[in-house]
Amino acid sequence: xxxxxxxxxxILCGEHAVVYGRPAIALPLDSIRATVHIEDGIxxxxxxxxxxxxxxxxxxxxxxxDPLGELLFSTLRCLGLSIDHVRVTITSDIPIAGGMGSGxxxxxxxxxxxxxxLGQHTLPPSEVSALVYACEKRxxxxxxxxxxxxxxxxxxxxxxxxxxxxxxxPERHATSLNPVMEPLHIAQPxxxxxxxxxxxxxxxxxxGELRRRxxxxxxxxxxxxxxxxxxxxxxxxxxxxxxIAAIGPLLSENHELLQAMGVSSHELxxxxxxxxxxxxxxxxxSGAGWGGVMFALTEPSDSNAIAHALREAGAAHVLVTRxxxxxxxx
Length: 330
Ligand code: PMV
Fold this sequence. Notes:
Blueprint: E1 2-13, E2 24-40, E3 47-51, E4 56-60, H1 67-79, E5 86-92, H2 102-117, H3 125-140, H4 146-153, E6 157-160, E7 180-183, E8 190-196, H5 204-216, H6 218-241, H7 244-261, H8 266-277, E9 282-286, E10 293-298, H9 303-312, E11 317-323, E12 328-329
Helix pairs in contact: 1-2, 1-3, 2-3, 3-4, 5-6, 6-7, 8-9
């Protein structure tokens, strides 16, 4: 039996505007992971995918239209190999549809597990990311590609979505993935307290709604996205300079811009306000919104108080994470 894992992720800043060509920063969350086990099955039994957490078990083949089945067989085609009678068990401690990249983590763990099982480590992270991106499109419509990139590379990243022509374009996005991805140097480790509203929202819903609003008032939303882009650039400068306290107000400003886009929610705003009251350096929602998670940037000594305040304000789960030089660790 072989086993591979992949981390969750959190978008530090720039979500939504990233779909429209502005930069975003994302971090892997090493302490919550998706795991895929592969073991030989009974000859003739085919390829069986099992998701015990979801109480689901299903057979996939070359003609499957199931996104994970398609990913499995497209990975095999990339590797130039075939597989028969295996049992693929998928587990994850990343909340589904919670803004922490559960889908991309499961897909990445699946591609890694196939490579391990077949003794082939030939695909570099960029190719793993591209395979997972194709699967993400099946689930989310027109994702920017930030989730698969940060999870496949498993390091903090600066990300700009571009079209094949090199020009940022939401319209051309669906057919191409050619992002600018730079590993980010984090000069000074910092602490995040992540609060999960417990409300599950599909990424494509707020993304689609924002698209409709952008179409009806493009100038207004482009203005918001420009402001987000400036905030994200400033956050990068402070991360690289180790000026952690200076990042707090920028994250809070990003939250206000996301509110103006209409992708936050009462529950997210309540948790963000509770984090501020408890002494956070800054706080914002993260990911697609209308549910999912928010986080607070905090001094390590304040993390327990902020975690307590988030629980009191209704957070279903709270995770304290230390983000270091090349990886995010608990
Ligand atoms: O739902 P999440 O956490 O994967 O976040 C989606 C991020 C968006 O910028 C809203 C969409 C995207 O594809 O980048």
